[in-house]
Automatic annotation (TrEMBL):
Pfam families on file: HTH_1
Alphabetized UniProt keyword annotations: DNA-binding, Transcription, Transcription regulation
Protein name per UniProt: LysR family transcriptional regulator
Protein source organism: Salmonella enterica
GO MF, one annotated term: DNA-binding transcription factor activity
Domain HTH lysR-type: 2-59
Family in the record: Belongs to the LysR transcriptional regulatory family.
Length: 154
């Protein structure tokens, strides 16, 4: 099984080019870093590194794993942050689509007013053109459309 820690270990080894340099960066002993990588490689059933006498190099599978692993780390950090925000009273987000016929000053003022009343909600604003606000609404990308034409596309 892999964890955020094991992904960070692989990332450190890849960036530093050796287990000992990664261990120094992570404030661990080299054997702990090597063991973590070996456990992960056994779980994946593929080698992530080519081991040489004093350094290591990513295998093609390791390059791919590192790329994906970095995005997983980022997603884990975002998820942790959002959970903490919700636990501390952050209520989530509201996505709106604004048609380009709405003057930018009006949109800016709307955003300022929104945060004055709802500082615990993230406002996502998407600029749309023509019937884009209706598309965004029907696709579920937004919860609110501003500046939509009266003619609802079928």
């Amino acid at each position: 099984m892999w964890s955020e820690y094991s992904l960070e270990v692989v990332d450190a080894v890849a960036r530093n080019g050796s287990f000992s340099a990664a261990a120094q960066e992570l404030h661990r002993v080299p054997s702990a870093v090597s063991y973590t990588v070996r456990q992960l490689e056994e779980w994946l059933a593929v080698p992530l590194f080519v081991r040489r006498h004093r350094d290591v190099e990513l295998t093609p599978a390791g390059v791919w794993f590192l790329k994906e692993g970095r995005s997983v780390i980022k997603k884990m950090q975002i998820t942790r942050q959002q959970c903490q925000q919700i636990a501390n009273g952050w209520r989530g987000q509201l996505a709106i689509a604004v048609d380009n016929i709405v003057r930018p000053e009006r949109t800016r003022q709307m955003i300022v007013d929104f945060y004055r009343h709802f500082d615990d909600v993230e406002l996502l604003v998407f600029q749309e053109v023509f019937n884009g606000v209706w598309d965004a609404l029907s696709d579920g990308r937004v919860e609110l459309a501003i500046g939509a034409t009266q003619a609802i596309p079928v």
